[in-house]
Amino acid sequence: MFVSELCRVRTEAGQALLGEVNGGIQQQLDKEILHYDYHASFFDIFLLAVFRFAALILAYAVFKLGHWWAIAITTAVSCAFLIVKVILSKLLSQGAFGYLLPIVSFVLAWIETWLLDFKVLPQEAEDENRYQSFVDATQRAPLLCAGPLSDGQFYSPPESVADSDEELDDKHDPEIGLIQQLT
To answer: InterPro entries from the entry (predicted)?
Structure first.
């Protein structure tokens, strides 16, 4: 009996899900976009994601900002819109997708913020510093100036007196002096 009840509930849930999409993609797009209703439509959440993506690409790729304020503003706008949308709309009465889409959008906004703040921006600053130090090193003048080329003249020390090797060894080697004193 429990198995048959479970199969019936599963079949009804599947039919309800197919019933929402049964009209076809074209009809659903027409309903979501052309006959937009703030209280029942998911299209504005999609547009919020597109706005967020475009704003962040514009700020960080086009204008090459290295500061966190752009991600902070887009996260604040996204979160505020999602909270107001959940409170004022009928999304929660539309089944699991009505719960799932706002929650996933909210979580993704904060994950993007965390990744950008703690991973991407510090790595880009480090790469910029590395590149700048490389550029500065190539533009710096050499520390040692190249002198004139050698013309092949080399100088050697003056000749030493014959038998001077032995005398130098005795003076500089303390053991030899010690041995001679003992004998």
So the answer is: MENTAL (IPR019498), STARD3 (IPR051869)
The answer to whether 169 touches 176, Cβ cutoff 8 Å, is yes
As a whole number of angstroms, the distance between CA 2 and CA 7 comes to: 9
- Whether residue 64 sits in one domain with residue 17: no
Residue written as token pair 């003056």: 158
Residue 2 lies in a domain: yes
Same domain, 41 and 104: yes
Show the CA angle centred on residue 138, arms to residues 136 and 142, nearest 5°: 105
Of 125, 121, 114, the C-alpha closest to 75 is 114
What type of residue sits at position 75?
Answer: T
Domain extent for 130: 36-134
- pLDDT per position as a tens digit, 110-143: 998 999 888 888 898 899 999 998 888 777 766 6
33-84 pLDDT, tens digit per residue, is: 888 998 888 899 999 999 999 999 999 889 988 888 999 999 999 999 999 9
Structure-block tokens of residue 157: 């020390």
